[in-house]
Here is the input.
Amino acid sequence: MRPAANGAVRFTDRAGDFPMSSSHPDWIITPAELHAELSLVKLIDVREPEEYEECRIEGGKLIPLGELMARASELDPDDNLVLYCAHGVRSVHALLALKSLGFTKLRSLEGGIVEWQAQGF
Here is the structure.
């Protein structure tokens, strides 16, 4: 992380910079926002198959993080993609990986499926 010119903290990775604020970066979607937009997005679950079998968000496509780059051709860059994992860490890595391939309509579920369930969805 490094401070940006405007004072916001930036997360830096080989794939590029994403502005982060203490409030809500535009590449993050909250569980409540996702619930409201569920019919408008494609869900990508980047967890492992055994995690997916335990619980999942209905309609999500399982592509484990370790397989994502090899399977990126299964995804449409024009779709609004929401990536999720257990707590929101792997989904950010997935977002950065897809961004490096030219995907632009990407968001990561804040808090992952754990927060999704905690909020009663």
